[in-house]
Amino acid sequence: MRTAFIGFTSLLASGCSEGAPPSAYTHLRDRVAAATGLDRPCFRTIHGQPGRLPDTECYRFRDPQRLRGVTARSFEMSRFYPGAHEAPAQGQQSDLWLSLEPQLLSPQLRKKCEQGCLLALDFIGRRTAVEGSYGHMGLAKHLIVVDRVIGARPLG
Prior knowledge:
Number of helices: 4
Strand content: 25-35%
Helix content: 10-25%
Number of domains: 2
């Protein structure tokens, strides 16, 4: 019995599944799911239908802070380059995924960004508390959720 408990505790501490480590999740059941691989973290029955919790309810985040930089957005891609003032260089990578709800942008920018865009962005947002695999295909080390846009302008 003691060996089983130690083994289970080790799984919880280390995480054996891909994606964010168990400590990244807000809810205990999601931490267990991430550690054991027996279930998918943050998936629930919502209004009688299978669904996923919003990122803001799924992951643990740091306190909100003001951030400025450039976001590159397109189909299944949303990278953030903190401190940048212009478009990233060809091939420049970022390990930050930016979650920006379209309704936070002006109607003109929403329209312009429907197919993708580059934006200089000044906003209040929260970064995940734990490094992991976030965004499309888990290619980013952190997720940043935009809570409020202070300023946004298109680049290029």
